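B., you asked whether I could sanity-check this one before it goes into the benchmark set. Here's the sequence:
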Amino acid sequence: MTGVEDPAKAPASATEQDELELEAELEADLAPQTPAEARERAKLGPFRRLYRGLTSFDFVGRRKIWFGISGAIIIIGMTALGVKGLNLGIDFKGGSTWTVLAPNVSQQSAVNAVSPYLSQPIVEILTPPSGQSTLQVQADLNGLSAKQQAQASKGVIAALAKLAHVKDLNKVSMTFVGPTWGSQITQKAIQALIAFFVAVVAYISLRFEPKMALAAFIAMLHDLAVTVGIYAIFGFQVTPDTVIAILTILGYSLYDTVVVFDRVRDNTKPFAAAGRMTYSTMVNLSMNQTLARSINTSMVAILPVLSVLLVGAELLGAVTLQNYGVALTVGLLSGAYSSIFIASPLLAILKEREAKYVAIRKRLVSKGERSISFSAQDAATFSLAAPAARTGAATRPTVRPSAPQSPASRPAQGASTVPPQSAPVIAPRARKQKKR
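And here's what the prediction gave me:
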């Protein structure tokens, strides 16, 4: 009985077999050839290898470690969220705020002054650059009747005026936020978050592909869960500034993820789709190519935020900057982690299930090839060497890491020398010419 033959099992022509053998030989030469050469490359140190494009870290192969770390943080955070909940600010749950200029007043003395009138008050001392400390007291009075709210507010105003040595009670300002306003703010925040997710998934699906959009969406959910969990664990107050910061960090995480995915897409045709390597190996290659850029971008974004958090909040006493800075710091760290260790391994898992990449993996395994993690310079050499190999050139490049020459290995006087280079050099190696 005749049937359709599986293309993956169809016998290849002589030309195709020669090309596959040449590419396999090139692939084998991309890795350090001997343990001695690997040790020479390791002597450069991690930072020098990183910024010279010599890293070949296996991100996808260690995905269980990254997923385990994220899972543990998220589980602890969600447990704290279920037990303690979030410390919502007055803009979300409603309540009253009293403010008065009160230099040389401690936080504990303010708590003792208003405790007879308020249950669980939140007392903060704001110190602007001018040096005039402002005492701010927040409390939720929505559970009281109108008469009880008026009595409690009157008592708090009198206590704060006495504490601040203010004779005019009108200098103690009061702001009231009702529960309806707080619920509207919460709904608007949720709507903004949902609209952001929908726009992101639609853009990445059209710009790249749906599986990349799914991986990026899961990475953003990871960042959101980690940030919410950290806020629940440490009891940080959730304010409108927090919502703005969360949207900012999700945008940053998406930006870093899209940069990596763009490199993955560029490498797909010459490497993975052409059958030279598995999709997971190609994702590792793309990650190593963009690793230095991702680290630099994260550091450039996090350092200013840390300065705002430490200098603005701790030294200048700007509590609003503290709320915003905490959310940005936590989110930026989580976003940098997810773009490297979550999104790309997830994409590799999704793509490796496609029939095309399953067939490529089976073919490479049947040839006895082991999985190799390539560096950025290895990939550049591979891209330049493969076309020359197809033409049947007598020599082909072999990547060898550069290393300082020892006295014994230096050429004799009068012999030809090659100038030393800091990056890997391409050394030709002869091979037997195949007959076509």
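One thing to flag: Residues 279-315 form the longest helix (37 residues). Otherwise nothing jumped out at me.
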